């Protein structure tokens, strides 16, 4: 009969646990608690009956708006707040849409188109209630690089030149990126975004912000330099900038400095004070844009000082146009990278908001929503879309409850496209570039977080810095690829590395800790406790064997240094008393995974220890590896224990029993001589 007694006492306000129980081996513990064998567990576990899905269930899962919009929308409670949030997002979309279109090397109205078509698709199919899809600086810049590579300059105005226009190349990228995201949805690859870790994305976005800033120097200062692309873009751009600095337009520079100063001063000193008194954030970017437009509408400053203005802005919605299919193969690789980056950034933002507000997300459904949004948008002159942190934060802080806010925002942008867009034709491009640069302030300042990242984790710091430097010095695609490879290589290396530590017991406890970390811990006589942490596989098996040999060799050396000569005198015949048996306890609680080659090496190591006179015990082997190790272990003498303490106590009791039986068989007086 087994007896287990446990009590908790309070002594001097310090909790104390006293437990009495038998020493268990794994087989005994399982038998006493009716745990079935691994082969029989599948039949014991009853799977819940599968729910029969109806056609309506599939429709409601694929189109979430059926539930929240058409069946359960609370018009009286949520519509007013969603409307205010939609207005707030729309007033941000107007200057951002026109500004970020510059990065994509397309017309300013393209950014406004992106605030309509992909947004409406996502509102119907997406599962996040608060993210705002549309223009994103990173995606526009990456698309702009492809546009510059394949578009024929002047093809928009002169069809006889042949080739492809900028918008044709951009929409081809958008369609391919959308199709890639839809394929990811079909094959349930929503978790693929985890390839881009948070640290990698941080380094990537910070470096892209530097590239964006560099690309806007021409517009900000009016310097006459050619736009650089490809390898060494940033260094070459700065070289050209200093070489052509004498062509600076001081009127353009003055307007840029004034605009940047206003935006920075407002953001640092006035934003919180003013917004705390308003029902929605003050749209400072839109206000600056409107004031600048009005100023240059009624004056001739831009013409007098040769400032570059927006020029003709098309009114109305874009026509339906199929992107050129012949371009698909040329832009495929770039589109795949853009699709992955867009999904990763958008999902990171969506998860951040959903965790804060406690509602679920479907990662694969997000692929469908974003992918189909890009596919639809590609037929209406849209670049690849992504979630904007600033617009999403505005939609959430103003009080938006659902994606109805995005629908309201899209409706307002349609009004702007139909009747108001042409008003912004006199606006200098340097004003929009100033808005872009100020919006990038947070990303540019991420470089200041690097010391903290490095202090917390050298590997994360390495990934961050490698990505940051390679993107800036080489190219966006090449830098991102190198960052991903380095990140995965570090994960692989960490997966094959293992650690072997010798444990000791804290006095008067059953806690076993590393001897190199705890000075008060002591080794148990005749017991070597070795903790193994990591996987045990074909790659690191020899590393495991070498480290195990090292710690057991130290054990042999220590044992030989303290060996006692024991002699029993029985009349005339001396009888040697066998030294207490030594054992090695392998603490396998931190074993992650073991394959056939690793288990074979474990068996060989155990066999070697047994042949050297050790008892070998395996303790705390995870259930996922226990049965596999037992079935593939050729050494039958090894014992399995649920905890290290069970193994230690078992060995001590066995030694005591053997010594008692030895002394009981001696008829005469014995003496122990050193």
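Q: What amino acid sequence fits the structure above?
A:
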């Amino acid at each position: 009969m087994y007896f287990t007694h446990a009590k908790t006492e309070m002594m001097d306000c310090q909790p104390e646990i006293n437990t009495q129980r038998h020493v268990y081996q794994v087989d005994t513990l399982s038998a006493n608690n009716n745990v079935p064998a691994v082969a029989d567990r599948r039949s014991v576990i009853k799977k819940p009956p599968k729910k029969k899905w109806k056609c309506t269930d599939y429709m409601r899962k694929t189109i979430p708006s059926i539930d929240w919009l058409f069946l359960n929308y609370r018009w009286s409670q949520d519509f007013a707040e969603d409307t205010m949030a939609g207005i707030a997002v729309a007033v941000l979309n107007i200057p951002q849409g026109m500004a970020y279109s510059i990065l994509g090397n397309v017309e300013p109205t393209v950014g406004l188109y992106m605030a309509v078509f992909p947004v409406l698709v996502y509102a119907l199919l997406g599962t996040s209630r608060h993210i705002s899809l549309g223009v994103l600086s990173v995606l526009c810049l990456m698309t702009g690089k492809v546009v510059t590579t394949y578009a024929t300059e002047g093809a928009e105005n002169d069809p006889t030149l042949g080739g492809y226009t900028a918008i044709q190349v951009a929409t081809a990228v958008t369609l391919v990126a959308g199709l890639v995201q839809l394929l990811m949805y079909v094959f349930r690859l929503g978790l693929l975004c985890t390839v881009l870790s948070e640290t990698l994305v941080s380094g990537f976005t910070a470096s892209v912000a530097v590239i964006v800033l560099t690309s806007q120097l021409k517009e900000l200062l009016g310097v006459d330099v050619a736009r650089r692309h490809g390898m060494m873009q940033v260094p070459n751009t700065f070289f050209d900038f200093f070489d052509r600095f004498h062509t600076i337009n001081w009127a353009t520079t003055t307007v840029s400095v004034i605009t940047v100063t206003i935006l920075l001063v407002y953001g640092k000193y006035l934003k919180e004070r003013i917004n705390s008194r308003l029902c929605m954030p003050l749209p400072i970017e839109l206000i600056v844009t409107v004031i600048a437009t009005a100023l240059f509408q009624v004056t001739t400053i831009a013409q007098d000082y040769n400032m570059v203005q927006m020029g003709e802005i098309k009114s109305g919605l874009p026509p339906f146009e199929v992107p050129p299919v012949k371009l698909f193969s040329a832009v495929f690789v770039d589109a795949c990278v853009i699709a992955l980056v867009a999904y990763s950034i958008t999902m990171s933002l969506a998860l951040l908001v959903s965790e804060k507000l406690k509602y679920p997300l479907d990662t694969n459904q997000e692929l469908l929503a974003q992918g189909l949004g890009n596919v639809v948008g590609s037929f209406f002159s849209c670049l690849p879309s992504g979630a904007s942190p600033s617009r999403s934060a505005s939609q959430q802080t103003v009080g938006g409850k659902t994606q109805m806010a995005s629908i309201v925002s899209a409706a307002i942008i349609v009004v702007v496209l139909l009747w108001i867009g042409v008003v912004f034709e006199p606006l200098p491009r340097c004003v929009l570039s100033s808005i872009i640069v100020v919006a990038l302030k947070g990303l540019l300042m991420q470089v200041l977080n690097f010391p903290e990242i490095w202090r917390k984790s050298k590997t994360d710091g390495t990934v961050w810095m490698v990505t940051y430097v390679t993107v800036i010095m080489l190219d966006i695609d090449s830098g991102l690829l190198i960052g991903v490879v380095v990140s995965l290589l570090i994960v692989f290396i960490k997966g094959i590395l293992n650690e072997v530590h010798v444990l000791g017991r804290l006095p008067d406890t059953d806690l076993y800790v590393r001897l190199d970390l705890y000075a008060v811990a002591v080794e148990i006589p005749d017991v070597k406790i070795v903790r193994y942490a990591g996987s045990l596989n074909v790659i690191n098996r020899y590393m495991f064997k070498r480290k195990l040999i090292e710690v057991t060799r130290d054990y042999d050396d220590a044992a030989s240094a303290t060996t006692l000569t024991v002699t029993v005198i029985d009349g005339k015949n001396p009888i040697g008393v066998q030294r207490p048996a030594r054992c090695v306890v392998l603490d396998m609680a931190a074993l992650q995974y073991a394959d056939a080659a690793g288990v074979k090496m474990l068996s060989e190591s155990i066999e070697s220890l047994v042949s050297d006179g050790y008892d070998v015990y395996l303790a705390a082997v995870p259930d996922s590896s226990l049965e596999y190790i037992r079935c593939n272990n050729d050494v039958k003498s090894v014992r399995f224990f649920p905890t290290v303490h069970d193994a230690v106590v078992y060995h001590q009791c066995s030694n005591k029993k053997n010594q008692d039986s030895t002394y009981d068989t001696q008829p005469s007086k014995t003496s122990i001589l050193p």
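Q: And what stands out in the fold?
A: The radius of gyration is 35 Å.
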